[in-house]
Design goal:
The protein is an alpha/beta fold. The protein is built from 7 helices and 10 strands.
């Protein structure tokens, strides 16, 4: 199995260079995130990437103007919607920007998994992430270093390509892949020394661990 890797939240030249062998690179266009970049910064960082890396723009309930501003500086390959975007919003964005949309589905229990079906005909791919518990304070739409029960999404014949996200790191990568059956993984907090500060060593170690799988 050729496991695909997405490194999300790249916000420094050193991190971009370290993530050179990743299949997907995520830029966070969500100002409250400690990993956020503006369109100009993202365009500069993209210059450190290999041509083969697909550039993913992460947006959270963003207006068309914000997406257009990012695209004016950086030609993205995929739009990642990580908020409460409806299927209609996903469908409209695909048509307006003529780009594939990856919709994040936040999982805590079986009912959240079933909610993914609403996006089967709207999105081009799915990303399964952990849903923070209601009592948890100061959470972000993603990158909270939380994992969910991977068995909830295992053994299903998903009609769309999908990625596994949420609390992944070198230490649990092999178990996560084996349990969920995923062929693509997304990591952010698991390759950081602190929120928003990527570790080049952890990025390289994660990519190498994925390659061994």
């Amino acid at each position: 199995m050729n496991l695909k890797v997405k490194i999300c939240g790249i916000n420094s030249a050193l991190a971009a260079q370290s993530a050179g062998e990743a299949d997907f690179i995520g830029f966070v266009f969500y100002p409250p995130s400690p990993r956020a970049v503006n369109p100009e910064e993202a365009a500069r960082l993209a210059g450190h990437l290999l041509p083969s890396a697909k550039k993913v723009g992460l947006f959270v309930d963003a207006e068309d103007a914000a997406i257009a501003a990012a695209l004016a500086h950086l030609p993205l390959d995929i739009l990642q919607f990580h908020g409460e975007e409806s299927p209609d919003r996903v469908r409209d964005a695909r048509k307006k920007f003529n780009l594939p949309v990856m919709k994040a589905i936040k999982i805590a229990g079986p009912e959240d998994v079933e909610a993914a079906s609403a996006y089967f005909e709207a999105a081009d791919s799915l990303l399964f992430d952990a849903k923070p518990p209601a009592k948890m304070k100061k959470t972000l739409p993603g990158g909270n270093a939380l994992a969910f029960d991977w068995k909830l999404i295992a053994g299903r014949d998903w009609p769309l390509p999908w990625m596994l996200s949420g609390g992944l790191a070198v230490e649990n990568l092999a178990v996560a892949v084996k349990t969920s059956g995923t062929r693509a993984v997304d990591v952010s907090s698991g390759v950081e020394d602190e929120p928003g500060r990527k570790s080049p060593a952890k990025i390289r170690a994660f990519i190498q661990a994925a390659a061994r799988l």
